[in-house]
Amino acid sequence: MSQQSDAPAGAVSETYDVFADAGATTALGGNIHVGYWTDETRDLTLIEATDRLTDLVAARTAPAAGDHLLDVGCGNGHPALRVAEAHDVRVTGINVNAQQVAGATDLAKKSPAADRLDFRLADVRELPFEEGGFASAMAIETLLHLADQTPALRELHRVVRPGGRLVIADLCLREPFTGADRELLEGMLDVYEIARISTVEEHREQLEAAGWEVLELTDIGEQVRPSFGHAAEAFRGLSGQLPDPQGAAQLASAADLMETFGAHPQAGYALITARRR
Questions:
Q1: Is 4 within the bounds of a domain?
Q2: Is residue 1 in a domain?
Q3: pLDDT tier, 48 (very low <50, low <70, confident <90, very high otherwise)
Q4: Strand-pair partners of 173
Q5: Structural domain containing residue 58
Q6: Residue 94's beta-bridge partner residues?
Q7: Which tens digits make up the pLDDT trace of 231-264?
Q8: 135, 160 Cβ separation under 8 angstroms
Q9: pTM metric for this prediction
Q10: Which terminus in the chain has less CB density within 10 A, N or C?
């Protein structure tokens, strides 16, 4: 499957700035990732469902009090705060977006876990940390910005201690998109600065090539699928409030694209737990 090359860190950062400036983060309830619903919890709000996905990821890192966790692509810091407060762990978050790092740092000052939270501007492919310094790491919708994820996965393997875990939550393709569907995928990649959406097996292959032992790889696409409709609705609401007609049209188009992609039967979502050998 041919997809674009690595999305430059600056371009990814700029894209998140645009969505933040449009109020997308607030409209999505504070998180910048999908939510998780089941038949029993279908009435959850978007913020409750996105927090639930954070909880699923955090639980799989097997946190113990006093552990040091790395949050890769920490967004606005909301997931890191939630994990630090719930599990009595230290969390260092990294991001290529300076605006989000600053926002996360400000948010952390109001947290009861403020002394256990740290946010830095850094690229996952070149981490400024010593070998084995983290008990575990999590990456929620981050690695999809890299066409070749192996260098990043190797760096994470280096900084997580032996026996430590890496938990990934990310888009996946159940089958490669072909024919008319290819245009939909290319639009999704372009608008959201996504370099690669891997198949489930490609996720496994990349992790194993970087030295990780895959413990769990589950497609939870049906449980996160409502997120796309919720997000599209929020984006459309924002587009009607923007004074710039061109910006409003772009945001509305991005909403349509997201909703169409999210409804595609071959669009899945991988929840992965790996262990450093």
A1: no
A2: no
A3: very high
A4: 199, 267
A5: 9-276
A6: 72, 120
A7: 999 889 888 888 889 888 988 999 999 999 999 9
A8: yes
A9: 0.91
A10: C
